[in-house]
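Protocol step 4 of 6: structure prediction from sequence.
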Amino acid sequence: MKTRILALLVVATLPLMAFDCITNDFSVAVNLDPFVGSYQITGNNLTFGGTLPPIHPANLYDQSYELTGASVYDIRIGTSGQNLGKFSVSVTANGIPLLGCSNVDWTAFRTPQSLLTSTLITKNPNGISELVNAVVQGRDVVLSGVGTVENAPGQSPCTVTIYAYVQAYGTLR
């Protein structure tokens, strides 16, 4: 009988305890849509690149979260269109070198190559840090790139696309 009364008292007092203090500081993973930037190559051009429109991180996740941290979990480079032979590309994030590849086969990137598994892509830790800091601080990310191809695409436009995947952490507002 005593254990039943004690159990009843414990159950009755649970709502009065301050469990909400635990949930207020509980950090959860926040899925961000990838940062995507594409560079189109047209006509007789053997070069491509430029500055892409700014991407505001807040547009990539549910705004009911306040971000407290982030990390880059992958960056990929992909190509589409006809085979342009060898190509090179260098990409910056907010003016800081992020990644690149040099003199690689166009067709090897038809399935986007991952920074995690490809030996064809080089990364710059400073650019990755800039991407992470921009996400956490809520600053725009501006991707800029410059590249060359061995063969011009002629009448069929081709594309080089960069995908940056960021995992953020945050608390409910």
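Step 5 (inspection) to follow. The chain has one domain: 28-172.
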